[in-house]
Specification:
- By secondary structure, the protein is of the alpha/beta class.
- The chain has helices at 15-25, 42-45, 73-77, 99-103, 141-159, 174-180, 194-209, 225-237, 251-257, 262-265, 270-284, and strands at 2-8, 29-33, 48-59, 62-63, 109-110, 113-124, 127-134, 163-170, 185-190, 214-219, 241-246.
- It has eleven helices and eleven strands.
- The strands form two sheets. A nine-stranded mixed sheet has the order 3-6-7-2-8-1-9-10-11, with helices on both faces. A two-stranded antiparallel sheet has the order 4-5.
- The chain is elongated, with a radius of gyration of 22 Å.
Length: 301
């Protein structure tokens, strides 16, 4: 089973639009939206939810007043000042560290697991999709990303799909790390800007660390040809495969308004032709064709 994770060093580079376009071109694939902090692939996929499950994440302290002797130990220990003078825990201020729970001399503090969000298995016009919704200001998004990917792989195995398309989170933080491990390849979507190049370099280092080959695609390349060349030069210097260039085109925005990807909305456009070429290079990449590869160290440096 092959998994292509589409990532970017920052938000707004167009990775979700590219993922949605890939969904039109892929065959026998399952979609996965691993960008749980700001999930938006569902806006283009219009999924019909078949299964909804609560995601239980971190814990919050709750003081049992009938057992509390008001020794003030918990208030002394809480560096977040989450416990009021009348020994009530503020759920917004509580960071769930558990110090008060462990060191309460009367063991009068419970630490129940909280519902942090929901995850879904849905049907779309391009096949099944696994996605999630993290609660407002909730944490543990890395844990939820891992869960969504596990459920996607399980679904693919059960239904006989051999390709997973994952819309990954931006950046290099915990959610991205959770979305990278075990992937066949990373398609890194880059904007031709100074910050875009810098962010791409960080993602490339992450890919090397996890021994997953990185493939570079420059989106909106014609907005800054000089930076496009610098991005591609860096990719070549790291022996990364260059997937190609996608031009800037308002068609992407118009397609979003219609709830479609660019391949559906304007299949004869230059943007659609460019994405089709990029997809061809993705599928021609060795790691996307060789089954069961575990170590890509011989492919990347």
């Amino acid at each position: 089973m092959r998994e292509l994770v589409i990532v970017s060093g920052k938000g707004g580079t167009g990775k979700t639009s590219v993922t949605a376009a890939f969904a039109s071109l892929a065959q026998n694939s399952v979609l996965c939206d691993a960008d749980v902090d700001a999930a938006d692939l569902h806006l283009l996929m219009a999924p019909v939810v078949r299964k909804k499950t609560d995601f239980m994440g971190g814990s919050l302290a709750e003081i049992r007043r009938e057992d509390c002797v008001e020794c003030d130990r918990c208030r002394e220990l809480c560096r977040f000042e989450a416990i009021s003078a009348d020994y009530v825990v503020d759920p917004i201020s509580c960071e769930g560290c558990g110090v008060c729970v462990d060191l309460c001399p009367e063991h009068a503090i419970d630490f129940p697991v909280q519902k942090c969000g929901e995850w879904f298995i849905s049907d779309t016009r391009f096949g099944p999709m696994v996605h999630a919704r993290l609660g407002i200001a909730e944490e543990n998004s890395g844990k939820l990303v891992s869960l969504v990917r596990q459920e996607t792989r399980k679904l693919a195995e059960e239904r006989g799909f051999d390709l997973i398309l994952t819309d990954g989170p931006p950046g290099i933080g915990c959610p991205v790390i959770a979305s990278v491990g075990g992937a066949a390849a990373l398609a890194i979507i880059v904007e031709p800007t100074v910050s875009g190049l810098h962010d791409m370099q960080r993602v490339a280092e992450l890919a090397v660390h996890f021994k997953v080959p990185g493939l570079v695609c420059v989106n909106k390349f014609d907005l800054n040809l000089e930076m496009t060349e610098k991005v591609e030069a860096y990719g070549r210097s790291r022996n990364m495969t260059l997937l190609g260039r996608i031009p800037f085109d308002p068609i992407f925005t118009r397609a979003m308004i219609e709830g479609k990807n660019v391949m559906e909305y304007a299949p004869d456009s230059q943007a659609a032709a460019a994405i089709n070429d990029v997809w061809g290079k993705v599928m021609a990449f060795p790691a996307m064709n060789v089954m069961g590869i575990k170590d890509f160290s011989s492919i990347i440096k």
